[in-house]
Every structure is written in C-alpha cells, then in structure tokens.
C-alpha cells in the first residue's frame, strides 16, 4: 500500500512553467509529490528531495533520480547537469524514484544467482587487483558477465573508477569500466568522483579521458569543491585546468573561507593557472570572506608575477578589504616592500616588463558539451557546500590570456551496457537487477568494437556492447 509513505499535505496546484513530480524513495517507503520549475537542474531537484525526507539517507551523494522503464524505453538515472524539463513525462504528473546508484542491466536472460555469485568480496577484490594490474581484457570480461563496477574498496573507500585514475596508463582502463557500467558520478566514501581523484593525482590522461567519456567538470566533492578548484589548490599541471575550462567548468566556486580559484592561484603563485582562469572570465576583483581580492592575496604572499598579471588585466589597486586596507597597505604590513612599491607605482607602460603569452582571441569551449553556466545561475550547491558559488560574467572578457588547446574531445556520457542502477539497504553486499522486457533479435554476445581516433598518432578505443 502506498498510503503509508504519502505526504499528509495535498499535491500543490500546478503552475505554468512548473512540473508536478511524484517521487518514491523505496528505502524509506516514502512518496513525495513536489513541484519544480521546468528549468530547475536535476541536481537541485535531488537536493530538494533529500532535504524533504523525514530521515537522512546514508551516503546520500550516491543517490540519483531514476526514471523507470516505460513504453519500451530503458530505465535510467537522470543526468544531474540537465534540466528537469529536458525529460518528458507520460502524463501531467511525472514519476521518479530516488535510488542508490547501481548498474542498470539491459541484458535478457539474467541469472540472479549467477550475478550474486559474481559479487562476492573475493571477486570484487580480484576486480580491483585487475585494475591495479592494468588487465583491461579481464575487466571487460568480468563486466560482460554482469559484475557491477560501482562499489567501494572496504579498505580505502575508493571506487574502481577512482582506483583506475591512479594507474600509469588509465585511458583504456577507464573506457573499459565505463563501458562495463561504471557511473561517472559514483563517489568514494568521502564524496569524491573519479574526476576529482584524477585531478588530485595530477593525471592529465585520466582527466581528459573522463571528460571525453562525459564526466562533468562541475561535480562537487564532500566539501562542495569542483575539480577545477582542486586543480589549483593541488598545484597540478596547468593543462588540467585548461581542459576543465574548455569543457565549460564553472568559475567562482568558494571554500568555507570564501576563497575562489583565482585567490588560490595567487596564493600559490600559479601564473599559468591564473592566465587560464582570467582568460575564461574569472573575477579578478572577487572577494573572500575577509574582503580580500586576488591582488590582496598576492600582496600578503609576495607573489609579484601574479600581481603584475592582475594589474595588467585591470585589477583594482585601490580595492579595500573589510579591514579598510588596500593591496599596497597589505603588502607593507606583510613586509613585502618591493611588491608594495610595484603595486603603488604600476603604470600601463610596465607591460613590456611582463612576459605575457601571445593573445589569440576569445576562449573556445567544447561544442559537444552543454555549458555549466546553469549550475551557477541556478544556485546549485554540491554535497557539503558551505557557501554559494557564482559564475562571474563569463561572457564579458578581459583582454585574453593564452588560447586554450585546439583538441576536440569526443563525448559519450553513457555506455550501451548501463545507464544507472537501483538501490538496496545493504549497498555493498547486495546487487540490484533492473531488466527491460523487450524483444531482441540477432543478439551479439560480445557486441562490436568502435574505434575512436583523436589524432594521427593517438588511437583510443572503447568496446561498446550493442544489444
């Protein structure tokens, strides 16, 4: 009976431009009838649903809004970067389920006992060993048998995808895992996605591969920080930040002290990171919780190169922090007298002293990916986010810094084998089976191989199983 989990309040009256959605949470046996603007991001919808529940869900960041199979279409988890209105409902009231993310099986003739036998602790441990050993064929074979690659290592709390980002050659491993049903936004025990881990490990190959497979550059970790933010704080290869920005990474993410990416770049003296951030429209006069602008941060940390770049781009020398101090005064107080003098006496004629990268026009974005602007404008907050983040006028550019790379990555957000999963109370020990009753002919057990050629000297492949 459904009545045990219904809200006591009657359903809200529908409004123009709004969608009425009935949401079932199987683990709590709760039904919610909620109304959302059609342009509301799925991420924000999920956060609102989680906040409305009578009981907090353990590991809630690994729950997703699931659209069950209907009318011959497979069930799937909604892409959290898309708007709710992008998913048409069958009637005036939509129906979704909030479930723990698992692989969705589209194969026929599944043997539930065989699947459970695959998911023993010994097999899962062996699967992780195959990843560490780079055994792509063994991984693909185990996934083809039905193994769900969305689980946590009991010792480290990592997922198969995050483990793969730490290998020497992660490209083929990541492709095999995603084609085998690994979800790109399935998080570790501490809330990090594979893209976060790839950035932390300074693996440009893993970052570009995940982006090409459809990972979002705007995923949030347990602290509400994005991969772009970590690319600065971890002092990674500047090309990583460039790749994320090229794929529409949202600027202006803040930590608990209000520090944005541009503040962190100035703190650590990361000139190339700062170039890319400014080039893609970062706010050079943004303030942290103390009212300090990036130029204030340069002044206290004696980062002359970054200070010159900010001044060259037009940063305000006279900006006051909440202690009514200018960057010049902060530099004097910090004992950085030479930098203080440079800030005070800086003139536009000084640009010849600054070795800038040649300007080559406005920034270029990956045309195959939707802009992440909606995340900022919609006010979507990540798991554990403490403060709001906003995109600082990405369409009004200061004089550009270096032009981003010209590479055109491919994008394939979901594998043909899985698009999601269902949930259970015991996430690590149980598996879920979601099948679709459809008629199929000429089923090829191993599918076909699609070759993805990115350049004349680089060949990347993915095994796409077609049913």
Structure write-up:
This protein is of the alpha+beta class. The protein has 3 domains: 18-100, Phosphatidylinositol 3-kinase Catalytic Subunit, Chain A, domain 1 (Ubiquitin-like (UB roll), Roll); 107-209, Serine Threonine Protein Phosphatase 5, Tetratricopeptide repeat; 216-369, Ankyrin repeat-containing domain (Serine Threonine Protein Phosphatase 5, Tetratricopeptide repeat). It contains 17 helices and 7 strands. The chain has helices spanning 42-52, 112-118, 121-133, 136-144, 160-165, 170-179, 194-200, 204-212, 227-233, 238-246, 261-268, 271-279, 294-301, 304-313, 327-333, 337-345, 373-377; strands spanning 18-25, 30-37, 63-67, 76-77, 93-100, 448-455, 458-464. The strands form 2 sheets. Strands 2-1-5-3-4 form a 5-stranded mixed beta sheet, covered by helices on one side. It has a two-stranded antiparallel sheet with strand order 6-7. A hairpin with a 4-residue loop joins β1 and β2. α12 runs parallel beside α14. The radius of gyration is 24 Å and the shape is globular. The two termini are 36 Å apart. 45% of the residues are buried. ANK repeats lie at residues 190-222, 257-289, 290-322. This is Talin N-terminal F0 domain-containing protein. One of its GO terms (cellular component) is dendritic spine.
């Amino acid at each position: 009976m459904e009545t045990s989990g219904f809200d006591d309040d009657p359903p809200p009256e529908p409004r123009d431009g709004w969608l009425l959605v009935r949401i079932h949470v199987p683990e709590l046996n709760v039904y919610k009838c909620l109304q959302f603007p059609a342009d509301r991001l799925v991420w924000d919808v999920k956060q609102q649903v989680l906040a409305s529940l009578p009981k907090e869900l353990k590991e809630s960041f690994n729950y997703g809004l699931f659209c069950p199979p209907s009318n011959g279409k497979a069930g799937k988890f909604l892409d959290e970067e898309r708007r709710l209105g992008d998913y048409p409902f069958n009637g005036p009231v939509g129906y979704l389920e909030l479930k723990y993310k698992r692989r969705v099986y589209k194969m026929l003739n599944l043997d539930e006992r065989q699947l459970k036998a695959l998911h023993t602790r010994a097999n899962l441990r062996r699967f992780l060993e195959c990843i560490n050993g780079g055994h792509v064929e063994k991984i693909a074979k185990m996934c083809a048998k039905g193994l769900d690659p969305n689980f946590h290592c009991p010792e480290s709390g990592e997922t198969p995808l995050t483990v793969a980002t730490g290998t020497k050659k992660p490209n083929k491993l990541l492709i095999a895992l995603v084609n085998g049903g690994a979800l790109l936004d399935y998080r570790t025990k501490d809330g990090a996605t594979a893209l976060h881990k790839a950035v932390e490990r300074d693996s440009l190959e893993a970052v570009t591969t995940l982006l090409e497979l459809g990972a979002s550059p705007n995923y949030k970790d347990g602290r509400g920080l994005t991969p772009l933010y970590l690319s600065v704080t971890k002092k990674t290869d500047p090309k990583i930040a460039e790749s994320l920005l090229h794929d529409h990474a949202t600027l202006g993410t803040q930590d608990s002290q209000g520090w944005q990416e541009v503040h962190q770049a100035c703190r650590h003296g990361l000139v190339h990171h700062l170039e890319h951030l400014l080039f893609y429209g970062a706010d050079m006069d943004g303030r942290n919780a103390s009212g300090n602008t990036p130029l204030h941060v340069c002044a206290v940390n004696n980062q002359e190169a970054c200070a010159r770049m900010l001044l060259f781009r037009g940063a305000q020398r006279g900006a006051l922090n909440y202690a009514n101090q200018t960057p010049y005064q902060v530099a004097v107080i910090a004992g950085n007298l030479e930098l203080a003098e440079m800030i005070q006496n800086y003139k536009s004629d000084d640009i010849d002293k600054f070795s800038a990268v040649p300007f080559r026009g406005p920034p270029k974005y990956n045309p195959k990916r939707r802009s992440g602007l909606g995340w900022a404008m919609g006010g979507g907050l990540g798991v554990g986010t403490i403060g709001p983040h906003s995109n600082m006028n990405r369409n009004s550019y200061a004089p550009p810094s270096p032009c981003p790379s010209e590479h055109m990555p491919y994008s394939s957000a979901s594998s043909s084998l899985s698009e999601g999963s269902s949930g259970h109370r015991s996430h690590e020990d149980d598996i879920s089976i979601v099948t679709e009753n459809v008629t199929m002919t000429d089923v090829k057990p191993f599918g076909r191989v699609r070759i993805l050629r990115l350049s004349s000297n680089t060949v990347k492949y993915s095994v796409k199983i077609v049913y």
